[in-house]
Each structure stands twice: as structure tokens, then as C-alpha cells.
Amino acid sequence: MRSEPVRDRVDVIVDQWHQQFPDLDVPAKTLTIRLRRIAHHIEREVQRELTEHGIGMWELEVLLALRRAPDGRLSAGELVRHCQVTSGAITNRIGRLADRGWVTRTVDPDDRRQVIVTITKAGLRRAEQILKTKLVAEERLFGNLDRGTIDRMNADLRSLLVSIEGAADDYEPEPGVPAHLAPAGSR
């Protein structure tokens, strides 16, 4: 005999919808709410951990993007797309990181309108610190889940992302845009 699964707060919201709209079928909306709530918890926990170490989310986004990039370099435009901020915001972020010695800025010799941002050795050390800090927060959030549950969730979420973004194997990036930075709609 199987027992009913433990209910979460989203179940309560769905029950309220069904009371008001008995014929409403809301599985996609239910999934959306759960994903948004989970994303909110992850961001809040990571931010709390980063704040304790004097690290801002903006540092996390920029430095880890540069750490993953080929040769630790991206154009300012690529960073705008990756971090999903305005060009003014990325210029400010790059300036603050450069002032701390974590990145350098150079003019692209092939296109003088472009700025190339490169992570420095000190920036790599900072990125490693950020990554370790982020992992602590994620472990705290997901530490109560067994490996099988995490693997199943990863598989299901991969299927969801493939249905939204398309398969990575089918993706052909725009010329000059690394695959990991292209907008989802271009796949």
C-alpha cells in the first residue's frame, strides 16, 4: 500500500484554484510555480553564502563566465548576453573587477569597437573562492536528497530544457557567438 506523497505549498495553491475553477487543468502552471520557487530558494541561499564572504552575485556571474570561457576571455558584448544585463551595467561591472585586479580590458585588434575582457590570475583565485562558496550553498539546499533523486530530477529537467531550447547537438551558433552565450530562441 502506497502512501500519498507529502504535499507542498504549491499543492495548496492548486487546491485553491480548483475550488474557484473546478474544470481548470493546471499541470504546466503547477510546474512553473515549483520551478520559480526552487529558483528563488537557490538564489537566496547562494546570495546569503556569497554575502558572508563579501561576494556579490554580479561577481559570480562575470568571473565564472570568464573562467569557463576559452582562454578566459570574452568580449563585453558576450558578457552582456551571458549575464543578461545592459551594456552600461556590464561596463560598470567590468570596471569594478578591473579596479580589483581580477580582469583586464583590452581593445579587440580586429574590431576596435569591441572590448575584450580577460580574467587574471587573481581573478581565477577569486572565481575558485566563489565557486567553492556557491557549492557550499547548493550542498546545503540539496544535501537531504539522495543521489537517485538528484539524478532523476536532472534527467527530467534536461528533458524540459531540450523541449524549450532544443538539443545541444542540433545547435549551430551564430558566427562569433560561443554556443553557451547564444539566446535560446536562436536554436
Question: What Rg do the Cα atoms give?
Answer: 21 Å
Please name the fourth-level CATH homologous superfamily: Winged helix-like DNA-binding domain superfamily/Winged helix DNA-binding domain
Portion in helices: 55-70%
**Strands of the largest sheet, in order across it?**
1-3-2
> What number is the mean pLDDT?
86
- pLDDT < 50 runs, ≥5 residues: 173-181, 183-187
In whole angstroms, the N-to-C terminal distance is 46 Å
Structural class: mainly alpha
Predict the CATH topology: Arc Repressor Mutant, subunit A
Number of strands: 3
Largest sheet: 3 strands, antiparallel
Order of helices and strands: HHHEHHEEHH
- Discrete helix count: 7
> Could you tell me the strand content as a percent range?
5-15%
Examine the secondary-structure arrangement and name the CATH architecture.
Answer: Orthogonal Bundle
Return the domain count: 1
Spatial shape = elongated
Quick one: CATH class? Mainly Alpha
Protein model, in words:
The chain is mainly α and 187 residues long. Strands 1-3-2 form a 3-stranded antiparallel beta sheet. A hairpin with a 7-residue loop joins β2 and β3. It contains 7 helices and 3 strands. The radius of gyration is 21 Å and the shape is elongated. The chain is 60% helix and 7% strand. The N and C termini lie far apart (46 Å). It has a single domain, classed as Arc Repressor Mutant, subunit A. α2 packs across α6 (121-142), α3 crosses α6 (121-142) and α4 (76-83) packs across α5 (87-99).
Mind sketching the topology for me?
Blueprint: H1 9-20, H2 27-52, H3 57-68, E1 73-75, H4 76-83, H5 87-99, E2 103-107, E3 115-119, H6 121-142, H7 147-165
Antiparallel strand pairs: 1-3, 2-3
Helix pairs in contact: 2-6, 3-6, 4-5
